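As practice, study what follows.
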Amino acid sequence: MTTRRCGVFALIAVCALLLSTTGTAKAQIGVTRTQASWIGVGIAAIGAGIGICIYYAAHHAHTLIGCALSGPNGLELQSRGDPQTYALIGEVADIKPGDRVSVSGKKEKKKVDASRQFLVEKLNKDYGACTAHPAT
């Protein structure tokens, strides 16, 4: 084949391809039933995700890491993350004063003229001895 025939053949092939793939344009007003159902599924999934996140944020046990100390009212934890001291209540039998520990539980609401309290639900880890000094 000559170059000219190859060019004509290529032009015919491209035109045939374009004619076979083009369809008539349809005007669509509104959404189809399938699109509406997918929109409903998307809204439900987003709502479920938000609900699950709120549930875990509200019910997730807090974790404190710090040094356990003997205080005037019992066992206390000087927190590593913030310079706060919490009176430990709850499951504190395995916590020894002078040890650096990680505990899970809930921060109790601060009452007037009372120290901050932490309700220990679980001793996560005992890291061994620490050199914490009581907060003044």
